[in-house]
């Protein structure tokens, strides 16, 4: 069977999570609900931060950017999945698959970098409270977001180039609910050794360095908190970064869980089910994690609701 260039492939088939028609209807309702909750929750966070002057601080500026990233992240994959479930059509065009790979890598990398920047923000707030507003000035905060986006864009372009060089055999069935780059590499007929090395290199650099930065920040934060004499002071200091720490554990924990489950399981479908955690569940939970334990966010949201009512 002769391989042919990717540009001659008109479409791919996304096999999704299940072939059972009854289960597909249940999945449609479930994922539609989760998607709407994700969009609503994150947009409320953005609205609260932008409309309330009390929240015009570096921490909430980064939080609003994280919420915008979560909205974009889920929108990259879930709407197409919902359309496929509703219409029972599993195809996705070449352009659509290429777009999913590009934007998915963009927003995953951006989320990782924003979590790193937010960890540094908490480091400055707890370890250097008197100089916090001087260090975390608006210019530096904007520069952090701009650099994070630029690095993420570079990463997504590298992934785009990797995919554009692949050649495929006629069988282009992807055992996933979106175009996952690792699955596409497995389906390629051409030699992918160079592509795999590049992907692992990119993953190590843009995954390992941010995680190392977060671990360093929290090492310094814990060291500073332990030097506080009063128990109440320790709790107050730790509570300012508790929500961020939960989000970090959820993001990296689910990502690592997907990687380990894919490596341990011979069934690609099981890996697809596991990836639901970080592609759908994590972006949905982030607004709740930040709002439920944050009095400022809750107050801002109640003011918005009261004005609407």
TrEMBL record:
<feature type="domain" description="G-protein coupled receptors family 1 profile">
    <location>
        <begin position="41"/>
        <end position="290"/>
    </location>
</feature>
<dbReference type="InterPro" id="IPR017452">
    <property type="entry name" value="GPCR_Rhodpsn_7TM"/>
</dbReference>
<feature type="transmembrane region" description="Helical">
    <location>
        <begin position="237"/>
        <end position="260"/>
    </location>
</feature>
<keyword id="KW-1133">Transmembrane helix</keyword>
<feature type="transmembrane region" description="Helical">
    <location>
        <begin position="59"/>
        <end position="78"/>
    </location>
</feature>
<keyword id="KW-0675">Receptor</keyword>
<feature type="transmembrane region" description="Helical">
    <location>
        <begin position="25"/>
        <end position="47"/>
    </location>
</feature>
<feature type="transmembrane region" description="Helical">
    <location>
        <begin position="272"/>
        <end position="292"/>
    </location>
</feature>
<protein>
    <submittedName>
        <fullName>Olfactory receptor family 7 subfamily E member 201</fullName>
    </submittedName>
</protein>
<keyword id="KW-0812">Transmembrane</keyword>
<keyword id="KW-0472">Membrane</keyword>
<keyword id="KW-0297">G-protein coupled receptor</keyword>
<feature type="transmembrane region" description="Helical">
    <location>
        <begin position="197"/>
        <end position="216"/>
    </location>
</feature>
<feature type="transmembrane region" description="Helical">
    <location>
        <begin position="132"/>
        <end position="154"/>
    </location>
</feature>
<dbReference type="InterPro" id="IPR000725">
    <property type="entry name" value="Olfact_rcpt"/>
</dbReference>
<feature type="transmembrane region" description="Helical">
    <location>
        <begin position="98"/>
        <end position="120"/>
    </location>
</feature>
<comment type="function">
    <text>Putative odorant or sperm cell receptor.</text>
</comment>
<keyword id="KW-0807">Transducer</keyword>
<dbReference type="Pfam" id="PF13853">
    <property type="entry name" value="7tm_4"/>
</dbReference>
<dbReference type="InterPro" id="IPR000276">
    <property type="entry name" value="GPCR_Rhodpsn"/>
</dbReference>
């Amino acid at each position: 069977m002769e391989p042919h260039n990717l540009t001659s492939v008109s479409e791919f088939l996304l096999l999704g999570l299940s072939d059972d028609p009854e289960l597909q209807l249940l999945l449609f309702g479930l994922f539609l609900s989760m998607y709407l909750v994700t969009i609503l929750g994150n947009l409320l966070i953005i609205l609260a931060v932008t409309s309330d002057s009390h929240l015009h601080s570096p921490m909430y500026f980064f939080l609003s950017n994280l919420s915008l990233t979560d909205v974009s992240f889920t929108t990259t994959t879930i709407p197409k999945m919902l359309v496929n479930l509703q219409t029972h059509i599993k195809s996705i065009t070449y352009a659509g698959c290429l777009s999913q790979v590009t934007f998915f890598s963009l927003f995953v990398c951006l989320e990782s970098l924003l979590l790193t920047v937010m960890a540094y923000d908490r480091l400055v707030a707890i370890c250097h409270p008197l100089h916090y507003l001087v260090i975390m000035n608006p210019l530096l905060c904007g520069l952090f977001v701009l650099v994070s986006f630029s690095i993420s864009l570079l990463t997504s372009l590298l992934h785009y180039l990797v995919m554009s060089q692949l050649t495929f055999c006629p069988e282009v069935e992807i055992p996933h609910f979106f175009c996952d780059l690792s699955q596409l590499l497995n389906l390629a007929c051409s030699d992918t050794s160079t592509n795999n090395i590049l992907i692992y290199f990119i993953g190590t650099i843009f995954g390992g360095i941010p995680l190392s930065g977060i671990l360093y920040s929290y090492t310094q934060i814990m060291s500073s908190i332990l030097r506080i004499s009063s128990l109440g002071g320790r709790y107050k200091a730790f509570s300012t970064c508790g929500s961020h720490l939960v989000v970090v554990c959820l993001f990296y924990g689910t990502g690592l869980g997907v990687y380990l489950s894919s490596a341990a399981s011979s069934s690609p479908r099981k890996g697809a089910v596991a990836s639901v955690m970080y592609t759908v569940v994590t972006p949905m939970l982030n607004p709740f994690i930040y709002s439920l334990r944050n009095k400022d966010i809750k107050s801002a949201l109640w003011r918005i609701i009261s004005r609407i009512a």
